[in-house]
Amino acid sequence: MDDFKSLAKQKTNDELVEIYSKSMDYQPDFIKIIEDELTERNIPIAPLKKVRADAYEVSDKKIHAGEQGSTLYIAICFLLAILGGIISIIAGYIYAYSKRKDSKGESFYYYNEQTRKYGKWMLLVGAIMLFMWFLI
User: Fold this and answer.
1) How many Å apart are CA 12 and CA 4, to the nearest integer?
2) How many Å apart are CA 33 and CA 1, to the nearest integer?
């Protein structure tokens, strides 16, 4: 904690405002120290809290929507799935079932519906083809 406090003391006002505004990139303990340092320097926190809340809202909307998987990686993994590769099974599982949390701690799928569907198919095809290779 003392390291955080000394680090906060070394920052300029602009740096402290930047850190506080983008607090989702930092540890909560550090943000509390930054908030205390801003208060000590008589920098108003209320407008910064609004900026921070807006940033969390935008981030949460992105998390709730899910990301589109890379078309190139999906195509390569499907090719590997046809060849019976274990990598495609792992990639399919990641695309289909990976989750992350929003600012409120709720879990959401990392990828959008379409990418998750591809991931499930990739997982299935890879597992079937790997099984077929063991039969041969």
Assistant:
1) 14
2) 9
Three-state SS at 9: helix
Instruction: Give the DSSP H or E segment for 33.
Output: helix 28-40
Provide CB contacts within 8 A for 41, sequence distance 6+.
13, 16
Contact call for residues 109 and 116 (beta carbons, < 8 A):
yes
pLDDT in tens, 5-42: 888 788 888 888 888 777 777 777 888 888 888 888 88
Instruction: Record the tokens describing residue 44, joined without a space.
Output: 């108003």
Give 58-85 pLDDT, tens digit per residue: 777 888 888 999 999 999 998 988 887 8
pTM metric for this prediction: 0.64
Q: What angle do CA 19, 65, 78 make, to 5 degrees?
A: 110
